[in-house]
Amino acid sequence: MSIPFIDLKTQYRQIEKQIKQNIDNVLEHGAYVMGPEIGEIEARLSNYAGVSFGVSCASGTDALMMSLMALGVGPGDAVFTTPFTFIATAEVVSLLGATPVFVDIDPVTFNIDADDLRRKIRYVRENRKDLKARGVIAVDIFGQPADYEAIEPLAHNAGLWLIVDAAQSFGATYKGKSVCALGDIACTSFFPAKPLGCYGDGGMVFVHNEDLHKLLVSIRVHGMGEDRYENDRLGITGRMDSIQAAVLLAKFEIFPKEIEMRQVVADRYAALLADVDGVTAPSVPEGNTSVWAQYCVLARDNAHRTELMGRLAEASVPSGIYYPKPLHLQKAFESLKYAPGDFPVSEDVASRIFALPMHPYLTSEDQESIVKVLKG
Ligand SMILES: *Cc1c(COP(=O)(O)O)cnc(C)c1O
Fold it and tell me: What is the active site of this protein (predicted)?
């Protein structure tokens, strides 16, 4: 059996001509940085997401970083987020000298738990006079939206902003709305393995607000002012390359179709896994859609996961663990002084979750073989 975990080669074959043509255009016009492809991809994706502005940038991490900078986040600020995510979500908070305050997750969606968010906001207000509660970063883990109807009013009523970390969920919808149109700012990533990926690093920030848009555009290029060598503030080198934008323009052509294909694959997995003992398939609340950045299932416990992943490896079926260690237990966040047991749901999920191969071109035959291996 030779089943890729993510199949970018088959995708490339579908759009090879357009990819080569688009890259060739960049080589011909020579505007490698901030070429015409940049404005074009920003317009296409912001239009698709139903947001006024898209600001392309060098990575999903830079998208988050630029957003926090635009919101003036710094030392003494508390930013609430989930510990069950890729490190970038909380890393940028700490890099700016602010303090990530973790909130446990929902055991079904693996996204931030609104009730715990309410508790943690109150905790910071009452017990951490050294911190000022500033905002929330909700993550749409594995491509499925967080519970925005609960989270957004909670944040706004407490005077906090909301950033949507849509690095894994560009194209997903919450009650019919694109996740990138939710919150005050939404950030996504075009890392190759994400549902919409380029051929290197890339990201985008989505905003409705014109002032925030202006700030983001400035921060993206060293805090540039009206004139190129006029610097109004500090910023970063956050631009996306024209070649990556050219790749995205070609890939975006088939992206809506690929989302549908991902859903077909996910539905097939759900049906096949229904009679696998001790394996819990992911579920998405009615009214929402996931783009299935990862297809993660739960084993009964840690030993059961080891057994199942061992069986897959033996049959040459790739699998992975997203994420084996929640952020509050990472050495990088040692100074936050969290301990095992602080986020029981995140810790439990991390101990028994694992991901199966997932991509739009996965065949039903391959899925059947994968599930057969799981059954033993
Ligand atoms: C991938 C990812 C990021 C960072 O994106 P990069 O483009 O790799 O910098 C941030 N948050 C989450 C949840 C991610 O999955």
Answer: 194 (proton acceptor)
Dihedral, 129, 344, 85, 53 alpha carbons, nearest 10 = -60
> Which of the listed residues 86, 109, 170 should we mutate to test ligand 1's pocket, taking the one with most ligand atoms within 8 A of CB?
86
- β-bridge mates for residue 296, sequence order: 355
C-beta separation of 68 from 80 below 8 A: no
CATH topology of domain 255-375: Aspartate Aminotransferase, domain 1 (3.90.1150)
Question: Rounded to whole angstroms, how far apart are CA atoms 75 and 104?
Answer: 23
Q: Please state, in angstroms and rounded to a whole number, the distance separating the CA atoms of residues 373 and 299.
A: 14
> Does the predicted model carry a pTM greater than 0.70?
yes
Q: pLDDT tens for residues 331-366?
A: 999 999 999 999 999 999 999 999 999 999 999 999
- 167 CA to middle of ligand 1, Å? 5
The whole-angstrom distance between residue 327's C-alpha and the CA centroid of its chain comes to 15
Q: Are the C-beta atoms of residues 121 and 80 closer than 8 Å to each other? A: yes
Q: Which of 362, 364, 199, 187 is nearest to 292 (CA)?
A: 362
- Which pLDDT score is estimated for 1? 60
Task: Choose which residue among 56, 110, 137, 191 to substitute to test ligand 1 binding: the one with the highest number of ligand atoms within 8 A of its C-beta.
Answer: 191
Could you say which DSSP state residue 112 is in? B
Residues with CB under 6 A from ligand 1: 59-61, 85-86, 88-89, 139, 165, 167-168, 189, 191, 201, 203
CA distance 256 to 184: 25
* Residue 337 bears catalytic tag: no
Nearest one of 319, 307, 285, 301 to 375, comparing CA atoms: 307
SS3 147: coil
Task: Tell me the CATH architecture of domain 8-249.
Answer: 3-Layer(aba) Sandwich (3.40)
Dump the DSSP string for 205-242: EEES-HHHHHHHHHHHBTTB-SSTT-BSS---B-PPBH
* Domain residue ranges in the chain: 8-249, 255-375
